[in-house]
Amino acid sequence: MAQDTLQAFLDQIVASPSPYMALDKQYVENRIYALIGDGQTQASEGNDPVDLVNALVETAITHAKIKDTPSEREILEAQLMDLMTPLPSALNRGFWDRYQVSPSDATDWFYQLSRANNYIKTRNIARNVVFDADTAAGDLEITINLSKPEKDPKAIAAARNQPKTGYPLDQLCMTNEGYLGRLGYPARSEHRIVRLTLGGETWGFQYSPYAYFAEHAIFLSQEHRPMKVDQHAITNLLEIVHQFPTYFVGSNADLPIVGGSMLSHDHYQGGKHTFPMMKAPLDREFDLGIAGVTAGVVQWPMTDLRLRGTKPEALINAAVKVMDHWIDYSDESVDVRAYTNGTRHHTVTPIAYRDGADFVLDLVLRDNQTSEQYPDGIFHPHQDVQHIKKENIGLIEVMGRAILPARLKTEMAEVTKYLLDQPNQIAPMHQAWADQLKATNQITAENVTPIIHQAIGDVFARVLADAGVFKRDAQGQTALDKFLAQLA
């Protein structure tokens, strides 16, 4: 039975889009033995490739081919999964052949392949806590991110003693495709990238290993360069949704505090998901004076200006007009300042998607100032909500999907005990919040979880409001109208 593990995996390899056929089985079998050691293989818990590979990794540990560490397990797993993955040239050919039938056929095929070879860590992603919350800002999506494995302290310590290679330069570089991995750096043997052309340049398209939503895609520049939100970026975003009309795509802002976690490599994120912000209606329209483009203010806690039209060129002109004005715009009455001491504070988080024949472009205004009162950012989660969320508000959260830290799972378990008057170790930073929940709710074992979920959603709504540059009150909207009047 145990030997069937290897044979079952060989069958999976031959049936997959890998380069190998039935005649290659003996060759591939010996390649696997070279990785896991000769002799008996351990039994698998199932016939899924992940189950089979897990058993082969355990075999390698038994045969002393690798040590039982997270890093060595990950590297061997990726090497084994690489055997059932097409070569980059074959994958690109397969993708673009299917694209000629339909873009969805191509993305469906690439997505399923990335799941099948476990590049997309579906079992890890399934651990995430996900729920919706009906808040004053609308229906928001909340996730507590548990998919990324905890870092091994021993591996961290060992990585410090490794020679610094600087290769790959970062986790978004194309040099990651097929990279073995090392202590402190993820294995990428089974990683594949589709090449495409944007703005006359070569770009890559891949999926995120630890996806935050359906078909979470990453579009990355072949050139390693810092992110920049400008006319070229807007052109690229609209070209991507032209090429992939079922996907949205957006860019993190290109400044610290309001930007994403990887500003050093030019990239965008997209996928097949409709976010709460994309569903939000317009509050009012305004005139940009550009034919073929309608513009409106979205009913959203952050300041989102929605542009719509059938001609990408007109939308690009409209977006540049808004961005150019925002870059230099200040209004001291609402703490909006374009520069302090020569440092730029303004940028946008742009998101593009299709709605029938229309191209839609959401421009979310961002300001990364700090102050003595708000040292983490004036338009950043304020201190009283940082017990739930203190990290940057990036592209995904701007659109209404919270990416909350893993610590909250254990911390909320203690809050639950506290609310039910059970022995607990509630963190001091949650105490005042929990006391308020106790005072305003009749809490039982049956309703405690929905109450906590709703309260987390309400906090996230506040987080978005904190990040909004023109607040959704009379003063803020009057100031926004003043800004918009100058765009006509």
UniProtKB/TrEMBL annotation:
Keywords attached to this entry: Carbohydrate metabolism, Cytoplasm, Galactose metabolism, Nucleotidyltransferase, Transferase
Top EC class for this record: transferase
Pathway info: Carbohydrate metabolism; galactose metabolism
Transmembrane stretches, start-end: none
Pfam families linked: GalP_UDP_tr_C, GalP_UDP_transf
Catalytic reactions of this protein: alpha-D-galactose 1-phosphate + UDP-alpha-D-glucose = alpha-D-glucose 1-phosphate + UDP-alpha-D-galactose
Gene Ontology, cellular component aspect: cytoplasm
Domain Galactose-1-phosphate uridyl transferase N-terminal: from-to ranges: 21-226
Family from the record: Belongs to the galactose-1-phosphate uridylyltransferase type 2 family.
Protein name (Swiss-Prot/TrEMBL): Galactose-1-phosphate uridylyltransferase
